[in-house]
Amino acid sequence: MAWTRKLRRKIKKEHDGSTRLYSISNKLKKEGKVTDEFEIMLSGLTLEDTIGLRLELASRSMGYLLYGLPLYGALPRIAQEATLKYVLSASRSRSEAARVLGIPIPKLHKLYQKFELYDFFKDQKST
């Protein structure tokens, strides 16, 4: 089946998984951290620009100095957590998320615990 047809097909109710309602955007909007206008402006930036800007804003309060923080060593973890949150919000189920990431479901469960993703998405669980 062509990917375009797969994307257009209607998902049966029994295939609605546990992550289908997860949305980072909706969560941040509920918390009042982002608006539609902010998302439009953010979409015009590259990922590198966004990370650089966020680091600059975080360092302002410390006089632009982040001495003693293992920033470079923390980048892989930051990227992994962001990728996990995205994949979980973009997939319909945990098994689909595991397939997208190329990892077994038990490994995904361990990553859920490691990055505390159960708590991050707790208010968006399907009932």
Tell the overall outline.
globular
Radius of gyration: 17 Å
Please trace the helix and strand order, writing H or E for each element: HHHHHHHH
Number of H- or I-type helical stretches:
8
Helix content range: 55-70%
Largest sheet: none
Query: Structurally, how many domains make up the residues?
Result: 1
Fold and architecture overview:
This protein is mostly helical. It has helices spanning 3-8, 24-30, 36-43, 47-60, 71-90, 94-101, 105-114, 117-120. α5 packs across α6.
SSE layout and pairings?
Layout: H1 3-8, H2 24-30, H3 36-43, H4 47-60, H5 71-90, H6 94-101, H7 105-114, H8 117-120
Brief characterization of the structure:
This protein is mainly α and 127 residues long. Helices cover 61% and strands 0% of the residues.
Keywords:
single chain; mainly alpha; 8 helices; globular; 127 residues
